[in-house]
Amino acid sequence: MKERGTADVEVHPAVEETAHQIAEMEVRGAAKIAETAASALKQQAEASTATTAETFEQEMRLAARVLLDTRPTAVSLPNSLRYIFRRIDGESVDELRESVITGTRAFQNQLASAQEELGGIGANRLQDGDTVLFHCHSTDVLSCVAAAREQGKSIRAIVKETRPRNQGYITARELRELDVPVTLIVDGAAGRYLEEADHVFVGADSVTADGAVVNKIGTRPLAVSARERDTPVVVAAQTVKLDPTTLSGHAVEIEMREESEVIAADDREDIGDIAVENPAFDVTPPRYVDAIVTERGQFPPESIVFLMRELFGTQSDQPWEQQE
Amino acid sequence: MKERGTADVEVHPAVEETAHQIAEMEVRGAAKIAETAASALKQQAEASTATTAETFEQEMRLAARVLLDTRPTAVSLPNSLRYIFRRIDGESVDELRESVITGTRAFQNQLASAQEELGGIGANRLQDGDTVLFHCHSTDVLSCVAAAREQGKSIRAIVKETRPRNQGYITARELRELDVPVTLIVDGAAGRYLEEADHVFVGADSVTADGAVVNKIGTRPLAVSARERDTPVVVAAQTVKLDPTTLSGHAVEIEMREESEVIAADDREDIGDIAVENPAFDVTPPRYVDAIVTERGQFPPESIVFLMRELFGTQSDQPWEQQE
Amino acid sequence: MKERGTADVEVHPAVEETAHQIAEMEVRGAAKIAETAASALKQQAEASTATTAETFEQEMRLAARVLLDTRPTAVSLPNSLRYIFRRIDGESVDELRESVITGTRAFQNQLASAQEELGGIGANRLQDGDTVLFHCHSTDVLSCVAAAREQGKSIRAIVKETRPRNQGYITARELRELDVPVTLIVDGAAGRYLEEADHVFVGADSVTADGAVVNKIGTRPLAVSARERDTPVVVAAQTVKLDPTTLSGHAVEIEMREESEVIAADDREDIGDIAVENPAFDVTPPRYVDAIVTERGQFPPESIVFLMRELFGTQSDQPWEQQE
Amino acid sequence: MKERGTADVEVHPAVEETAHQIAEMEVRGAAKIAETAASALKQQAEASTATTAETFEQEMRLAARVLLDTRPTAVSLPNSLRYIFRRIDGESVDELRESVITGTRAFQNQLASAQEELGGIGANRLQDGDTVLFHCHSTDVLSCVAAAREQGKSIRAIVKETRPRNQGYITARELRELDVPVTLIVDGAAGRYLEEADHVFVGADSVTADGAVVNKIGTRPLAVSARERDTPVVVAAQTVKLDPTTLSGHAVEIEMREESEVIAADDREDIGDIAVENPAFDVTPPRYVDAIVTERGQFPPESIVFLMRELFGTQSDQPWEQQE
Amino acid sequence: MKERGTADVEVHPAVEETAHQIAEMEVRGAAKIAETAASALKQQAEASTATTAETFEQEMRLAARVLLDTRPTAVSLPNSLRYIFRRIDGESVDELRESVITGTRAFQNQLASAQEELGGIGANRLQDGDTVLFHCHSTDVLSCVAAAREQGKSIRAIVKETRPRNQGYITARELRELDVPVTLIVDGAAGRYLEEADHVFVGADSVTADGAVVNKIGTRPLAVSARERDTPVVVAAQTVKLDPTTLSGHAVEIEMREESEVIAADDREDIGDIAVENPAFDVTPPRYVDAIVTERGQFPPESIVFLMRELFGTQSDQPWEQQE
Amino acid sequence: MKERGTADVEVHPAVEETAHQIAEMEVRGAAKIAETAASALKQQAEASTATTAETFEQEMRLAARVLLDTRPTAVSLPNSLRYIFRRIDGESVDELRESVITGTRAFQNQLASAQEELGGIGANRLQDGDTVLFHCHSTDVLSCVAAAREQGKSIRAIVKETRPRNQGYITARELRELDVPVTLIVDGAAGRYLEEADHVFVGADSVTADGAVVNKIGTRPLAVSARERDTPVVVAAQTVKLDPTTLSGHAVEIEMREESEVIAADDREDIGDIAVENPAFDVTPPRYVDAIVTERGQFPPESIVFLMRELFGTQSDQPWEQQE
Predict the structure, then answer these.
(1) Which member of A177, E217, E238, F38 has the lowest number of beta carbons within 10 Å of its beta carbon?
(2) Mind giving me the DSSP string for C283-310?
(3) ipTM for the whole complex
(4) Average pLDDT score, chain A
(5) Domains in chain E, ordered, with CATH?
(6) Which residues of E lie closer than 8 Å to A, measured between beta carbons?
(7) What does pTM read for this prediction?
(8) Which residue of E has its CA nearest to A247?
């Protein structure tokens, strides 16, 4: 694969390999994808035989585009590249290479510690003896509970099963490992159990520039009911979940999943000729969210756009596109 | 079984038998229980060998108490007895007996036609081409759809599966029999599909004097989200569902059901030591309900207390208690 | 015109004449229609040559149906007939005739004094020095202001012009005749002027059993904005505006009017190929209305259904249908 | 004192005496005033030497007007008279006298048992272990707690001091006598303690036809905050507190009390030239109240107007005015 | 015109001329005013004969003040000057001049492309087949539709006529040129048509530091009603519409326009002695706005203050005032 | 006191003395504490005999920690230190010392003018003739009124007494000195007087990163009621009140004060065995606040986190901790 209009720029095999792994979903999870992509970019820089700064930059842009093409909707992938490109600086190939390596390390260090730092911040919102209501499964959310437990706080959990894939089971199991007493409920019972909850904690698949939170289907009605009862809703999301493309207003595409997740084929046949819809996510407007907890601190959802710009630049920055 | 302080009053075997069937849940469903209890009361009256009006009335009160003792929380059971007792009138045994028989027939006639009449009224709220979102399963609700179909209206259905017992499947099947296209969703997806719905239709287990609707768990969050989107919420409930005991402020007891409904034993063991809660119902305040459709017409939930009083009297009326 | 299956029952020419006038809209306005229909029914009764009670009743039913067929959507027409039929009582033709005449007089007396009584009640909500915001034109609303003026209260008016037909001009003129200072504004400015208003007063075309108010387009957004500012919204509506057919859930049909009311033909041609829609009314849910003022007193909208039933019976009463 | 245009009708000295006591506030409290007025009316009837039904009725009307003139704004005074007048019935003086005596007894019996019955109903809303937040002092409210205690329920109390007269102290003392643990807070802290409260219980000075509750200043902000947190607000009010004059839209006049209740003269002098306002009551709209508990059962505030009409008639009934 | 206390500093005739044109409203429209003012400043810099940096800076400040004096309330005028002054940098006259020229060009480039970039971002919020409700006329809003059309999306428009000046007609005509089907409605019908709308798009006259949107009268009630129905409200506004003076809390002055816009003189005379008010704008609080779309991306209204500070500095920066 | 692991670093006596005064609350008030701490830090720098940059920095960190240990919950104390540490810069001891002195001066200058600048900004929100409702006592709030008075605006004040300590009296007195007419009310009457208020102005004890305002108990219910009536709520708070520790999610600890503030010992004894709670503050969520006015301008509460970061850095910056 070559950069447009340039005969002799090639991507490193490690980039090709990483792109393949991401495309085939061998590498999954927002943080993992970000980490792997950053690593590939570093390898490209380290192995570069470019003799001019211009050629080196062409290589980097090409590598970025190869990686980006694999899963255009993954939020953390462009974020990792944006983070590094914003730190590329220098006159010579050596200086440029060095800045890529330094930038990558900074990004990887941040990533490595992000979940733990986020957990410590989220834990600070919890008090000894609190009851927390959970939806779906999020390692960021669990990191908050783990940190609270380490601080010696006793926490009680109410876990929604989160149909159709029952990710609540995973949350329940991991909470038990943290020695947290767990009450499992069906999704429809959440309204009733909000009475007992001091907090709602959910993760996010992505957070948009207008402060909305994209997360597992069922988050929005939970947040609306929680506001009605004045129970604070906390979203735990590492900054790689922030989606700078939404700065330019792009609507979030909601994935529709297999109907077999919702109903077994037999049951369905038995019922007759029906359609089954299975949207994976919903979008919660910022007015139903009290705080977004990231490794950089907690923020009201309405202000997160400025953290987005600070870390990843604005959407009009497309540093992997050639600018003449 | 004898009336307190009266040596020679006995209940008819049909009453004993009916009481047994209701207690053992051989007779189930609000309407069925009401119908059977009324019938037993009538048999008591017909078979009475009382020679004085006083004795006859003692017999009736005794029979009522025997029936009531079987399932103290069933709403329709006292309603049937209250309806008939309010119509007992006369000086002689013959006049009294006649009034019981007439009252029973009036009640049974009303019951027989109630669902169909209610259906016709609910159907009038639907317009050709409307999309309706359903929660759980209610024959009252389906009667509305059936009537709308008979009026030639085309209806589209979105059906929540209604965990943990998936009564949405029954609703889906019966809607298909009415030739209504059905989209089945998980409970958490309801917020998303409210966008497409012109109405939410739910049934009720009971309606309280302060206008609240007791129904299958998950109704309240659905109604809260529907209000947020300005989608009207209609409750279809025959008048036997109105609960006059709540006139005297009695809190509604919410049944907790088997945890095996929520999670299979194996799965649970696998997760570890967790509690599972499975409340069967929730309570929706009147401010989230647009109309209650009964066979007597549709009413704002805040006014239903007066229909309750009109049909079944006030709570301080305990006609089966001896008043000296 | 003859009663179904009865050879010799005929309607009185006064009934035919009245039906014609209503159909041709020579008789207009809720109160006027009600008054005229009642009068025709009385003439039918007075002129009856029926020799049996049964024949007399057939005549009355036939007359009612002839009148009703003229404008099926007029609310006050069936109300006048329901009011009288509920008071028909007697064994002989003479007794029946007398009861029709008495019932008609009672209805007409009520009608004659209704607007004035309503005005007195509405005026009691106003205090000396209050500012009132008005939408469209309603004689019931103006009756409230007239009564307040007679009580010596000084009132200031803000009047929405009420596009497209500018009925606000009529309201403005009649308020000036009451010596009320008037400020006229465009419809879009109402939000701004709510700040200065102590009350919003609007009339109603009809009030439904679920407490919703059908009124001139623009009422609902005004009421929503007024609630946001905590300005009370008062609906002035004589009881003939209550619509008992909505007890059975019938959706209100909103009339679409001429597009020439909205835009002159020239202007439209000039713009190009556009559609123009001109709905005459909108429906305000009861939660945005503070009180409905009638000649029977003021009521929260959620309770008006019981006034409806008290005055006009329930929808299942169709006294003009033959009941065997 | 004589009836207009009738030379020989006189009020009984007991009526004059009672009128004096009410006017001088020797007789105070809604229930006490109602009871005394009814008693005076009965004495008038018993002592009557009227020889014609007409004269007897003139006497009754005159007595009523004498009583009513004493405190035109007391709600329970006209209610007691309306209750009795609605039951006056008969052709002869003896029959009429008997009906007054019977009606008075019925009213007095109801009054005697009202608070206890109301208490039983309100208690049914409370569950063992509940925490209740109280504002001001109301014997109706305390009757609910007493009944709950008799039912063996353990209740925890949070009591607002209720400036400026600190009626919370009385409530606190009486709750302690019921063995209820009490936490006293300043009024501004109520928002914070709503978190811990399962219910808010307040009394009422009067309830209006549009469902609004007039009560001690500070009730409305408490109710607004309680709605924001979804804590149910219960108003305990005997039916003599229902104000039928508001059916005709009369605005409620809010009494302004002595400024010395708010600030000591010395403190005020020290501050300088300030105004002090001390309104005694505020008006809570029905949308912030969950239920009104009366001795007749509990009602949504929006429906209370029909209980008002059932017990005391409509405002247009002024039975003490002569109708020729 | 001379700088205070400096004898020999003069403004360039181009500045005087531009000031005159702005004052006389020969130059109108936020973008046009900004562009022309920037251009004048550049000409002042180019023509400067200043021999010291200090003199040059005095000239620039004087020119800025001359321009600012013309229309103190125009938002875009100080924004253009602030933008450029923030980029003035240098030791020598030549360096300073160069920085003015560069800053001006940057500002003009941004301005030239702003509307198109904003359009692209706003268009991304729209989906193929969406219905959009429009109020008044805004070229920023139309740029969003144009971009959506270029992306091949089919859009349906509902256009409020926007009394009193009917700017909806202009919007309708321009939408037709983009081949968008248009339905025109009166302002009062907007509540009804929100049901069919997927988005509300409005422009802005200015946006304040507390996130409020100043726009054509009628925007606020539309936004309130849209929130009640959960229809997102999008404000399209170039960054020159952001008003940094509101950082210092200055209340927005709402212009009152000619009453002849509201009612023809004849009609008014006909009605009688009334006042007519015609406020041009209203202020929508941020809680009713979902996103502000600018050429820099979309932002929640609550965060726009930081974009304001980034681009134009804070209000305490008054770079045209002499600072010693 | 020595820096950990360094034998020869000592704090200056002025630092010890200041620490003592703050700990003993001889120095009180957010601004005074900040000013004094900054001054101590400057004296440490000026008196330093350090010979290496490293030693100097150790001294500064040690001094900071000594000061911080005195009152861990005072918001302004770490803010003053953070402000200065962010400006420490240099290679040599002399350069470092100079930067501390300059940074301290900048901080002190800002502090000296902050309240006045804030006042000018807040005053701009007020219009001549406005009525403002005040809670508790805040010099920041009074500075707004003072500035408005200097601008010649006439202001009318409604002052809540603010139980239990009646700080409203202080506010009332100081407003009188500004020649502002004052109406004093009890706390419970605020709901009623919001009708007359154009603004609510309150101060803050601290503002958290999620936009919540910690202030004297009673602020939250006031703000909730004000939103319900659409009265804007303005918080006046210097930037030293912003609490960057909340960036890391730390819950705000609410101080419980002496119960003797609430009730006199005698009164309490008289009532019986009750608890008294006296929380000093409450927390108002950002959705009930319209603007926070600081000396840097006014901000929506949701965006204040970025002002916090701009001025004081993020919480992860703990510049007084040794970083190797």
Answers:
(1) A177
(2) EE-GGG--EEEETTEEE-GGGHHHHHHH
(3) 0.86
(4) 89
(5) 13-116 (1.20.120.420), 119-312 (3.40.50.10470)
(6) 117, 120-127, 287, 290-291, 293, 296-303, 306
(7) 0.89
(8) E297
